[in-house]
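Bit of a strange request maybe. I'm writing a small parser for structure token strings and I need a real example to test against, not something I typed by hand. Could someone generate the tokens for this chain?
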Amino acid sequence: MTLDELELRWAASAARSAISAEAMTGADRKAQALGVTSETLMEHAGTAVAAAARALLVFNGRVGRPILVMAGPGNNGGDGFVAARKLASWGVPVIAVLVATDERPRTHDAARNWKRLDGLPNVTLIHAPVARDVAILGQGVEKAGVIVDALLGIGAGGRLREPIRSAVEVIRHGRAAGVPVLAVDTPTAVDLTSGDPSDPVVRADLTVTFHRPKTGLMAKPGKSLAGRIHVAPIGIPAEADRG
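Reply from user aminoacidic:
Good idea to test on real output. This should exercise your parser:
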């Protein structure tokens, strides 16, 4: 599907009122209490990101180049790993990078999806535990077809630490070289409630956020940093927004 077709398909979610990061966390927890597993939510989110990344690749005429997924150690990174798996299954070459000091992601769902990438065709796995590794990875970043920013999401705040900070700089360098950037849920270092950024911050061409629009992506400067915004449904029932 094209970017326009995805936007049309997800229009009902985009038309809903915006919520804060705290409200989104609450809806996610209530959905799980209602029987929707965290694994299912991540699978849906990652699949939406994959569809948007492929559409962005085509839109920019960069088919044949690998998609670089820069993923942090939390669930935002887990969404990125699901997207990498889906893209690879569609024949799109993917470089999936775990940007974290530890050898595996810190959440169960993210760790599970990182492990599922091991040995898959069309997937190159890289662990970048320190800033130097990230900097080396950044050499030649302009060859990527799309960069997926899955470093930090809804729970992020405060000053960026290494190696995440260096990964943001790599993404910024890639975009300056003409590589389109897709942010998962929010550009890294943009507060989903206020829209306020820290420094450095990712500037995206497309942001795929989930379930409902976010207040931080509706207000400046968050809106300008997010680029085009798609709001993808991920299976959170309406009851989870109540109470």
